[in-house]
Design brief:
single chain, alpha+beta, Alpha-Beta Plaits, Methylamine Dehydrogenase, Chain H, 5-stranded antiparallel sheet, Eukaryotic translation initiation factor 3 subunit B, protein biosynthesis, eIF3B_RRM
Length: 683
């Protein structure tokens, strides 16, 4: 309130802001001004864009420009470089490290991620770190303190599917429920009906793929691919490779390879950690651009410009830091059991084609076979690695002599075929040859055994020949099945049994190669795929994409008896879950086969018990359905009787419920109708 002029103003006593006697200030600056102190400048400000490259060659002024050009060419792939500084000594020699400043922090991080541990040559491996990391390492406490114990986390058991007591395999069925929505059913092959373990909608965008040993299942998505495993198929890892169209998994399941659209970008990942191990750029998706793995995951190789590039997976650098140059090379393949590569080279003028076996990592040529008049070659390894077959397409030619022999004409009369069989387990790797004059339609090795089969002749009336190879002997023709309408061969994974299939007509013949008897024949109209289960007990044929009304799959026994027919709308894919190789020795397996009759009664009793249990369950199910129907019918009859009074009121008290049963209430009437009138003229 304002006071009049001349009046004295009263002022209150000013507050005292001094600390009381004995006061101790225990509030830290960080607690009081935490947000403000975060803005305090520090030594590392402005250096997030800078990296330190160590282990660079020490050079003088004469070689400095060359070194600088190599370093800048290598590091500019990560982003725009602003400045490069090389510390030097009094004699103008570099000190073995350099500072590189990028335009932004993202480029610096990419350089560290992609070029750390990069091998410049066989003597120098670059070490790349961010400059700001030095502050982090300098803040390490001098006194060590033990880490805090973490609570135990139960890991998902990835191999529980192998301990199923009845050795019942698993499989997945992929179908498109609605456009753009893919459903995957994961099932156990129990008898008489399979058990659905998981049914997942939108589990994948396109299709799925099992790993070679069945540990993981891979799904495809717009953002990349995901790997699942365990009893509940939980996510193990995900790999951010957008629009990946195809994947490949190494034989020992350590690495995953993703191929981008048209195969232009190829990335190798560590499955367990999700780390990117190596990336490649390809011109497009082709057989030559595909990466190929050694049996033990130690090496991965690819074919580029007449070179085989082999990478050691311990470092993912080229083996011995150089490629294997082979002029005219067309294709190569790894042995499924040894670190041996087989490759073939095309024929040139006055230089024959050849097939070469090379041991890795020594790069020693173990065997070379020269071939003449070659049009094409196909390499087929036996699963056990005991034999290698090279199918050779050859020209039949004759020379027409002229007066001047130098100008002789060469005429090609047709084609014939050779199968070059390499005996890999014998000394000096001897090679035998099998010649076939007719057109070859299919070739397949017996996975476990020493036989191979060939379909040759015209598709409408082909012959199927079976050969057997033995140590120190040439392949022997053991059986020839004539006039067979088949185009594909599908051996049981356990050997002995084979399916002769015609995938155009959907016909199948089941053959026992012990005595070459045809156990049974069957047909599945428009079937386009055949899948053996890992144990060799069941075969599945499937139809997808051709006719909507016939889509689905059939399950057969190995003897050709149909066990079930499943019609599934928009069926896409059926895949058995693979199994890893057995841990039993060969001697133990032979002992089990020899004494199999001892276990026969146990298996028979189990099967009878299972079928009895299944029959009992079926009877109980039918009885329950009958009881439900009887209850429903009784309920409706009682409702009908309760409504009778109301019906009579609506119908003038006339009981119409029994009109049809009373013969006096029925009138018979005969009605004649002229259907057609024909006129016939008689001459």
């Amino acid at each position: 309130m304002a006071k009049k002029k001349g009046e004295e103003q009263d002022f209150e006593e000013e507050p005292n802001f001094d600390d009381p006697e004995g006061f101790v200030d225990d509030v830290s600056d960080e607690e009081l001004l935490g947000d403000f102190l975060k803005q305090k400048p520090c030594e590392s400000d402005g250096v997030e864009n800078v990296i330190v490259v160590d282990n660079i060659p020490i050079v003088g002024a004469a070689r400095f420009q060359k070194l600088n050009g190599i370093i800048e060419k290598l590091f500019k792939n990560a982003g725009t470089i602003v400045n490069v500084h090389y510390p030097k000594d009094e004699e103008d020699n570099t000190k073995g490290y350099a500072f590189i400043e990028y335009k932004n922090q993202e480029s610096a991080e990419e350089a560290v991620k992609s070029l750390n541990n990069h091998r410049l040559d066989k003597n120098y491996k670059l070490l790349v770190n961010r400059f700001s990391d030095f502050q982090k390492y300098s803040d390490i406490p001098k006194e060590w303190s033990p880490p805090q114990p973490q609570p135990y986390k139960v890991q998902n058991d990835l191999y529980n599917f192998l301990v199923e007591p009845d050795a019942q395999d698993q499989f997945c069925v992929v179908s498109e429920t609605i456009p753009g929505s893919v459903q995957v059913q994961l099932c156990q092959n129990t008898q008489p009906e399979p058990t659905v373990l998981q049914k997942r909608e939108r589990f994948t965008d396109t299709y799925v793929k099992w790993s070679p040993k069945g540990t993981y299942i891979v799904t495809f998505h717009k953002q990349g691919v995901a790997v699942w495993g365990g009893s509940n198929f939980v996510k193990v890892n995900k790999f951010p490779h957008g629009n990946a169209q195809f994947v490949d998994i190494s034989p020992c399941e350590q690495y995953l390879v993703t191929y981008g659209p048209n195969g232009q970008k190829i990335v190798i990942w560590d499955i367990r950690t999700g780390a990117e191990k190596r990336a490649f750029v390809s011109d497009g998706m082709s057989n030559a651009s595909m990466l190929r793995w050694s049996h033990d995951d130690r090496y991965v190789a690819r074919l580029v410009d007449n070179q085989i590039q082999i990478y050691d997976t311990t470092t993912f650098f080229l083996l011995d830091m150089k490629s294997i140059k082979v002029e005219g090379i067309r294709n190569f393949s790894w042995s499924p059991t040894d670190n041996i590569i087989a490759y073939w080279v095309a024929e040139e003028v006055d230089v024959p084609a050849k097939v070469t076996l090379m041991a890795i990592p020594k790069k020693t040529e173990l065997r070379t076979k020269n071939l003449f008049n070659v049009a094409d070659c196909k390499i087929h390894w036996q699963k056990s690695g005991d034999y290698l077959c090279v199918k050779v397409d050859r020209f039949s030619k004759s020379k027409k002599e002229k007066k001047d022999k130098k100008d002789s004409d060469v005429k090609f009369l047709g084609m014939f075929y050779n199968f070059e069989i390499f005996h890999m387990r014998e000394k000096d790797i001897p090679v035998d040859s099998v010649e076939v004059k007719e057109t070859i339609l299919a070739f397949a090795w017996e996975p476990v055994g020493s036989k191979f089969s060939i379909i040759h002749g015209e598709p409408a009336s082909a012959n199927v020949s079976f050969y057997e190879t033995n140590k120190g002997q040439e392949p022997v023709l053991v059986k020839k099945l004539e006039k067979k309408v088949c185009s594909h061969l599908f051996w049981s994974p356990r050997g002995q049994f084979i399916v002769l299939a015609n995938l155009q007509m959907g016909t199948f013949e089941f053959v026992d190669t012990n005595d070459f008897s045809i156990m049974k024949t069957g047909d599945h109209y428009r079937a386009s795929e055949v899948e053996w289960d890992p144990t060799g007990r069941y075969v599945v044929t499937g139809t997808s994409g051709k006719a909507k009304e016939d889509q689905g799959y059939y399950m057969w026994s190995f003897q050709g008896r149909i066990l079930k027919r499943v019609n599934l709308k928009n069926f896409m894919l059926f895949l058995w879950r693979p199994r890893p190789p057995t841990l039993l020795s060969e001697a133990k397996q032979k002992e089990i086969r020899k004494n199999l009759k001892k276990y026969y009664s146990q298996f028979e009793s189990k099967d009878r018990l299972r079928m009895t249990r299944a029959s009992k369950e079926l009877i109980e199910k039918r009885a329950k359905l009958r009881e439900q129907f009887t209850e429903y019918r009784s309920k409706r009859i009682s409702e009908w009787e309760e409504q009778k009074k109301r019906r009579m009121q609506l119908r003038n008290n006339i009981d119409t419920d029994t009109l049809e049963a009373d013969p006096d209430n029925v009138e018979e009437e005969i009605v004649e109708i002229l259907v057609r009138e024909d006129t016939t003229i008689i001459e």
